[in-house]
TrEMBL record:
Transcription regulation recorded as keyword: yes
Protein's UniProt name: LysR family transcriptional regulator
Keyword hit for Transcription regulation: yes
PANTHER family membership: HTH-TYPE TRANSCRIPTIONAL REGULATOR, TRANSCRIPTIONAL REGULATOR-RELATED
Domain HTH lysR-type intervals: 1-58
Provenance organism: Archangium gephyra
Entry's Gene Ontology molecular function annotations: DNA-binding transcription factor activity; sequence-specific DNA binding
Domain of life: Bacteria
One GO BP annotation of this record: DNA-templated transcription
Alphabetical list of InterPro entries matching this protein: LysR-type_TF_proteobact-type, LysR_HTH_N, LysR_subst-bd, WH-like_DNA-bd_sf, WH_DNA-bd_sf
Keywords noted in UniProt: DNA-binding, Transcription, Transcription regulation
Recorded family membership: Belongs to the LysR transcriptional regulatory family.
Amino acid sequence: MDWSRVPVFLKVVDYGSFTAAAKALGVPKSTASRAVTTLEKELETQLLQRTTRALELTEAGRAFYERAKAARAALEEAQAEVSQNVDEVSGTVRLSVPNDAAPMATVVAAFTRKYPGIHVDLVVTNRHVNLIEEGIDLALRAGRLDDSSLVARRVARSDLGLFASAEYLKKHGTPKRIEELADHAVVLFRGRQGKMRLRLETEKGEQREVTVRGPVTVDDLSFVRGLVFHGVGLGMLPIFFTHARTAGMKFERVLPEWHVAGGGVHLVMPAQKYVPARVRLLADFIYENFKPLECSKH
């Protein structure tokens, strides 16, 4: 078997198509397709199920992919240990981040300056992607983690704070006490029947519960932000992701001493014995440089 075809197969699976893989490899699509077809003939088994819409791994393909990917990671790890020179590390790292993670742009920009040989493929989506099936090396996720099979590192808090537009506060006034929230419209996040109960707390541990009401219920934080920006009402938004935009979108923090506790912002990756040097470098860089962006005032 010609092992030079294996990296092509891995790249096709990682990118989900022959076209994207060929572009990443800098070869014609026909070359990538021919390499995988020849590999299948050499192994005497079908690795990919080809349809007009997508590529899917066969059972044998999945097993071969996992073993080959681990072997690739082990080789890259060995190369990094031998060279002891991170400047020589190269390749692509696929990183998934939510739409609200605009501060990540600063971190990624700094990373690419420090490690010019590493290409970062950013996948921006609020959907919880399947890291293994979609070839994602790292993902930034806010809130509770449901998948125990992932390796997670907490990089920041994800508390929610009350925000409002300057226009809304000018028209309706700024609440100074929690009790005054009953007199204000609130954009409800996953609320029911026009109302939602909030459990607020302070850094000193004081807790209060309050029922708020509003004209709109929505299950997407980007829509909450948009509705708050347009003066529909107050809104609970992630402090961490909102503070960097507050000035530009003319948001103002309301009752800043109170917040709703979140589950944290985590950097997750698939559990694997060998982590490629390029992935480890990006993970460590995010962990070390993401925290200074956190809003320390709640």
